Every structure is written in structure tokens, then in C-alpha cells.
């Protein structure tokens, strides 16, 4: 049966770097809390099972999408859909920064990060393979979701391409430290601008989940937020571990996209021709 409303939640956590066992218990605890609060869809941050600054430790914490750890978490989730960040190992030595949607003992979907940042204090392209696909997931009938991981949302083409599929929810798991890009660029302000713009422009409820861990000199600042389809922030976290939740409505999405029909008027054929004419210049 289609649900007209969805209770969504964000688990803002401080994962222990490269300690999958400790992070598994942390995930199970937040899954229990969210289920007790009646959350339907729960989002964890990017690389929530491992922490961010892995570098040479990448091989030690990587797992396939068929890992018993993900199956254990999917079983604990029950009928709640949960999105979890992990290092996916596909072929031997091929690692992806990935996000798995799990539910009812199964892995429903995996998104591999496409836009790997390699600037400031970021060097993901040194350690990970680049994702090559962008596919919808439907954890509940009528509620489709796209996942874009952190820097994916800073390539304007990727949110636009994702929204051509008209998802009911956009999931944005991130790992953002305050000064990891540069001293002048404000990550906290930048992410507010980014999520405000995407949610309002495309008429899509958006969940942003950030870490609040400290890793060496990097402090991940939290600030996780849940947006409605009109670009309004329904709830926003501070700098500590917490669970935030809000209810999003399909009626709001219908109204927002009727009032501002961004995708209807996008003229994708013309955009593709204009883009093709500039590739290689």
C-alpha cells in the first residue's frame, strides 16, 4: 500500500576510524532508536561503517555488498529502510566509496560515489574507483530514492540527472570537515546553500547526514538536516551524536513540483545537444 507520508530520520554519528566492530554496534544502537520512534527511512553518513580518513587502512575495512555485516544490519532494520556508508570491494583490490540501502535482511541497492574529490585535504581518487552508474531505489511502494554521496552533489549535472528520474526523496550522506577544502571556503555554509538550492529548485525532500567525528586534525561538524519539498529545513542537528526525524509528505512534493516545474521545463534534449557540442573543446 502506498504511503502518503514518510517518517524519515538521520543518524548523525561519530564513527571510530577503521573500527568496523565498534561502528557496527553504534549502527545497531541507532537502528533500535529509530525503529522505536517509528522511523520509516533512516540515513547514516558517508562511510559510516569505517570513518573517512582511511588511506592505507582501506583494504582492512573493505567488504563486499554480500557481507554478513550488512546482512546483520539489514535484519536488524526489519521493515525500516536504512542507508549505510561503507567501503565496497568488488573485484580484488577494487574499492568504492559506497552507500547501501538495506531492509528486511537484504541489500536493496548500492550507490558508488561518482565524483571523487581531489583538492584541498581530499584525495579520494587516490584510493577509490569511480562509480559509473546512477539508479533509483524504491524501498517503499511509491517512494523512490536517489543517493548522491557528498561531492556528487557538487557536480551540478549529477543532481539534475538524478532528478530527471523524479525521485520522491534525495539522500545526501556526506563527510564534511569545516576546513578540509580551504581556510576561505566555509563547508557548513556551503552545504546549507547546496541543500537549500537542490530541495527548492527540484521540489524534493532531502536528507543530509554528516559525521560529527574527529579524525586527527579534521573535525566533522555535524549539522545534519532534513528538508521538505519546498526547500524548508524541518529539523537540523547540532555538533553532537543524535537522531533527528521529521515527516515528509507526497502532497507537498506534488504541490512544489506543480508550482515550480523545473524538470518538466528542463528540455533535456536541448541540454544534451548543448553539452555534446562542448565536450572536447
Automatic annotation (TrEMBL):
Record keywords: Hydrolase
Record has Hydrolase as a keyword: yes
GO biological process: putrescine biosynthetic process from arginine
One GO MF term attached to the UniProt entry: N-carbamoylputrescine amidase activity
The keyword Hydrolase is annotated on this UniProt entry: yes
Family matches, as InterPro entries: Aliph_Amidase/BUP, C-N_Hydrolase, C-N_Hydrolase_sf
UniProt-listed Gene3D superfamilies: Carbon-nitrogen hydrolase
CN hydrolase domain ranges (all copies): 6-250
Pfam families: CN_hydrolase (PF00795)
UniProt-recorded name of the protein: NAD+ synthetase
Organism whose genome encodes this protein: Photobacterium sanctipauli
Amino acid at each position: 500500500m502506498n504511503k502518503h507520508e514518510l517518517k524519515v530520520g538521520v543518524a548523525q554519528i561519530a564513527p571510530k576510524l577503521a573500527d568496523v566492530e565498534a561502528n557496527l554496534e553504534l549502527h545497531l544502537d541507532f537502528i533500535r532508536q529509530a525503529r522505536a520512534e517509528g522511523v520509516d527511512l533512516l540515513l547514516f553518513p558517508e562511510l559510516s561503517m569505517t570513518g573517512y580518513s582511511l588511506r592505507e587502512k582501506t583494504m582492512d575495512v573493505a567488504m563486499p555488498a554480500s557481507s554478513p555485516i550488512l546482512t546483520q544490519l539489514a535484519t536488524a532494520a526489519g521493515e525500516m529502510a536504512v542507508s549505510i556508508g561503507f567501503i565496497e570491494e568488488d573485484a580484488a583490490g577494487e574499492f568504492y566509496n559506497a552507500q547501501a540501502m538495506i531492509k528486511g535482511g537484504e541489500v536493496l541497492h548500492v550507490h558508488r560515489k561518482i565524483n571523487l574529490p581531489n583538492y584541498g585535504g581530499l584525495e579520494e581518487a587516490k584510493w577509490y574507483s569511480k562509480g559509473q552508474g546512477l539508479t533509483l531505489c524504491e524501498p517503499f511502494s511509491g517512494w523512490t530514492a536517489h543517493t548522491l554521496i557528498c561531492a556528487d552533489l557538487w557536480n551540478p549535472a549529477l543532481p539534475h540527472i538524478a532528478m530527471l528520474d523524479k525521485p520522491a526523496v534525495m539522500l545526501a550522506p556526506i563527510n564534511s570537515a569545516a576546513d578540509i577544502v580551504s581556510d576561505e571556503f566555509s563547508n557548513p555554509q556551503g552545504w546549507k546553500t547546496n541543500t537549500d538550492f537542490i530541495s527548492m529548485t527540484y521540489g524534493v525532500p532531502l536528507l543530509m547526514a554528516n559525521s560529527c567525528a574527529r579524525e586527527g586534525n579534521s573535525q566533522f561538524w555535524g549539522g545534519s538536516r532534513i528538508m521538505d519539498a519546498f526547500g524548508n529545513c524541518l529539523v537540523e542537528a547540532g555538533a553532537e551524536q543524535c537522531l533527528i526525524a521529521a515527516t515528509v509528505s507526497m502532497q507537498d512534493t506534488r504541490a512544489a513540483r506543480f508550482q515550480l516545474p523545473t524538470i518538466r521545463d528542463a528540455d533535456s534534449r536541448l541540454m544534451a545537444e548543448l553539452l555534446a557540442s562542448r565536450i572536447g573543446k
